[in-house]
Inverse folding.
């Protein structure tokens, strides 16, 4: 729904951090394969561009240190995660993994001995059912080697509902492709939500000069563990997408001869940096008066001000905004 899409004209990589935070999942890491030389000058380093995945293994090159768009989302999502901005699910499905799976030879993602609905889509029906249940109700895992068999506190669901809200303030609209967070300490929206979004407590965002289709990720979160009304520090992020220049994907990767993985055959050219980053403008109503400071990817201040409204002109190289009272 919200994860990165790979095609010629839909290079969205702004949103993966948002659902990871909403699912209370932290799996952010840096793993390079040497495709981009190390830079000792910080200004050169941060503008070198996105690193490229290795054609030999899909997990090599999962490197975020020069991905401005993804890191901006991580900054916001990490703040929400660290300050418990999204409440815990009141009635999660508990998966208890017993000794047969826990100590067996084949434990892997979605490969546990619990019932799953046959209507769940493949190729891994259990993993699909677990994902759907996690989005709709959240899933918690317990490990009990004293039990032989794994078990469920209640049955898994086969598919994600068109719209679901597992906790107050968190909504997935799967038909539109939109995730929304609206809690007292965080406001965020990611996906294809158009040009305007309104939250509680007087917070809203209106895009100006946004690219089409209207895909964007916006968020403001208290950074000190209190509500936005009480907070003295907050972080604000607005991103859309970015991609390597000159990246070319094949329309028929299966026709490429050789034993390379399909994902490697799909890429005709990885492209080069620095990346092209879409930078829409916006009028943001903050819900209260803040002192704000816009910083670029090198964390250099590019604008400062005070007020209840923050104006970002289109094309401004904003990495994030730091808010203080």
């Amino acid at each position: 729904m919200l994860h990165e899409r790979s095609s010629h004209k839909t290079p969205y990589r702004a949103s993966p951090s948002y659902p990871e935070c909403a699912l209370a999942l932290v799996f952010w890491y840096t793993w390079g394969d040497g495709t981009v030389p190390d830079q000792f000058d910080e200004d050169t380093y941060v503008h070198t561009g996105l690193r490229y995945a290795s054609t030999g293994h899909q997990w090599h090159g999962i490197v975020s240190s020069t991905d401005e768009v993804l890191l901006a989302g991580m900054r916001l999502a990490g703040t929400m995660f660290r300050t418990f901005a999204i409440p815990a699910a009141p009635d999660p499905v508990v998966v208890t993994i017993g000794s047969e799976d826990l100590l067996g030879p084949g434990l892997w993602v979605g490969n546990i001995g619990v019932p799953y609905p046959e209507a769940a889509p493949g190729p891994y029906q259990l993993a699909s059912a677990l994902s759907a249940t996690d989005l709709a109700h959240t899933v918690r895992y317990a490990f009990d080697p004293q039990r032989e068999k794994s078990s469920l506190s209640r049955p898994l669901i086969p598919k994600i509902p068109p719209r679901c809200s597992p906790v107050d303030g968190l909504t997935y609209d799967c038909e539109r492709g939109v995730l929304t967070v609206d809690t007292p300490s965080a406001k965020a929206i990611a996906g294809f939500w158009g040009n305007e979004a309104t939250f509680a407590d007087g917070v809203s965002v209106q895009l100006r000069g946004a690219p089409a289709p209207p895909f964007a990720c916006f968020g403001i979160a208290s950074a000190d563990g209190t509500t936005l009304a009480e907070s003295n520090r907050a972080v604000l992020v607005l991103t859309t997408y970015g991609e390597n220049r000159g990246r070319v994907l094949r329309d028929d990767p299966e026709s490429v001869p050789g034993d390379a993985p399909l994902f490697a055959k799909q890429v005709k050219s990885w492209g080069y940096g620095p990346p092209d980053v879409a930078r829409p403008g916006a009028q943001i109503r903050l819900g209260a008066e803040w002192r704000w400071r816009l910083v670029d990817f090198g964390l250099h201040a590019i604008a400062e001000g005070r007020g209840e409204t923050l104006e970002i002109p289109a094309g401004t190289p904003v990495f994030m905004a730091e808010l203080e009272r």
